[in-house]
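Archive entry: two folds, one per protein. Generate the first.
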Amino acid sequence: MAIPTALIVVITVVDQLVPADIHLGPLLVIAPAITASFAGPWVTGAIGLLAAGAQAYIGWHFGVLFSRNILVQVLALAVLSALTVFYCVVRDRRQHQLERVRAVAEAAQHVLLWPLPERIGPLTIACLYLAAEDEAQIGGDLYAATTAGTGVRVMIGDVRGKGLSAIGEAALIIGAFREAAHQQPNLCDLALALEQSVARNLPHLGPAEHPGERFATVLLAEIADDDNTTRVLSCGHPPPLLLSSAGADTVPVHPAAPLGMHGLHPTDYTLDVFSFEPGDTLLLYTDGVVEARNAGGDFFPLAERAAPWGDSSPEQLLHHIRRDLLAHVGGRLNDDAALIAICRTPEAPREHRHRLGVHAPLFGPGTRTAPS
């Protein structure tokens, strides 16, 4: 209250010092007006009353308190102060409603996009979600992880569209993954199950604005517990990065068609296999990260920015990427962005690297695999 109170005092004093033909009393309305920007109705009303009293004091000081001019000024100031108080009441009521709606939305978003556990078996995990929609914590990007058999299965994906309008498709794919990840014996069968679920349920979300609009890119990863073998399957999704002390390498993948294209068979999927060593970090991301542009139109160089932090913890790695990404785009993304950083802890076993044809090379060849 110091600022509006000081304004009232200064205007009142200066009005008595300036020549008699200069009247500064009407400027007292500034005090309740600026108070409404940071205070509630009671404080605003008190400042308005103080301003009206100061206007009356100015009239008394000059011996014209009951003149028509001063009475009109005091009445006008009181009316304007009352209107400002009414505005504060309406604003606070809307603010309370917005807070309740926001709390419900955050609860719904939390139920849909479960936070990933910080530790699953030999893996340390951190995730980051940056929604393009204001006040939203989820949009068209999605991720999930679960234990399955002797390993961990992770999914990251991106439905067409962004923001709140894409939540329906994202919820559908997340639900299908949580159910099918425990039932399908391999990633090819899992991808086919997701495709069938999308094809079966997408029409119930309502017709798309344009034919062929509804599809989603997805990357599935299966990280074994008992050796360093990792399998990935891409349905039109960008390849992951493997960070190590040697730098950042892009994992070669052979992407199939995105989900929602229909007509796929298990043999249409390619299972790519590589070695994920203890101490390395696997970075999964959506295209909202690598397609983020700066003012000059340059894409965000994810591999270049992530490489210096390969020895950091997953949480620290994502912290640095978030900082660099927002700085690159000037603080606001035009598309949803999601990242998952997975580190295999150094105490994880290093033997049995020969599964599925993985030997000494860092990346094994893609293998076209049908379900067993």
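Generate the second and append.
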Amino acid sequence: MTSRDQPGILAGYRVLDCSIAMAGPFAAQRLGDLGADVVKIEPVTGEWQRHAAAGGAGGNRINVSFLSLNRNKRSLAVDLKDPAGKEVLRRLVAEADVFLQNYRPGVADRLGVDYASLAALNPSLVYVSISGYGEDGPYAGRPGQDLLLQAMSGAMLSGGRDGEAPRAAGQYLVDAVTASTAFEGVLAALLHRERTGEGQLVTVNMLDAITTLQMQELSVHTVGGLPQTRSAEPHAHVYIRSPYGAFRTADVHIVLAFPPLKRLGEIIGEDSFLSMEDEEHGWTHRDEIFARTASRLLTRPARHWLDAFASAGIWAGPVYGYADLVDDPQIRHNGTFVTYDHPTEGRVTVPGFPYRFSATPPRIDRGAPLTGEHTRDILAEAGLGEEEIEALFASGTVAETS
């Protein structure tokens, strides 16, 4: 049997994914990529993300946002406000390994799917609750939206010019790091359960996730006592000496990361750098060094500077757009993107997996499902008889799309 034929590392584990939007679904998708049976439990009208296409990128029957966050899942469309729907969920929970939700505060309690209620049904359950700011506290009721958390985290003031508007990351950064944090939490809790048989509650919140991501920067502030001071020049990071950031050349931008000042001065022809000390003047003359570097780099094209810096062992590189990234030879070599055939969306190419395993590699066994595409199969697996299933369809408690 080849490694490709091996079941995934998490084969045999069932995950009930009751989350919406990005952080929760992305975490659950990672579990599915490793072989877990992920059941996406969504309303009969479909999860919110099915109706909110990022960038306006629609699809044939599934928009790109939903497609990108819900592969390797099966869909059960069920009304959890209906008592019969709640009973369906309870039967699934009794045999599940992981339950993941990111409901607004109080919703899990109202639906009867809070940790205490589900742990009473299945004491070995790993229950993951994702929130914006925490399970309780003064901000618990606030909306946990990515941009709001980026702004609150302090990260938006760690780069750019003093006096200019804060600049957000070009990614859903807080959602992504929260998803990774939840994924790590599930794996750790499952390992604990393997050792002890105990399930437990795992809570993850977006505010803590983005704050702890800045471990080094915030420690410089809290331990080192250094203020978070932006420069007059568009320096890329307040806690890194100059020059550090993106610079225009004669044709396109490149990035340059804290080179030795004397060596940099020799290469770009800036004599004032030759008498400077990296760890002294790199801080005290940060704006001057940045501005003079920027002026010198404008005189020649990017390829000239990148070759010269590479020969000198100076850290520099190109500034890519997505089209450049997808076509990069290292990206192609790594197999970073994967291409597969989706039943309704055709051949799609998307980012693949951030990890490698020699014996049990992750893989795509199914693309993102249609709303309730697997409702009938999942109900049968939960022990419901054919008459019970048909009655649930007839009452509108569950739904399917073929």
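Annotation attached to the second fold: The mean pLDDT is 95. The first strand starts at residue 14 and ends at 17.
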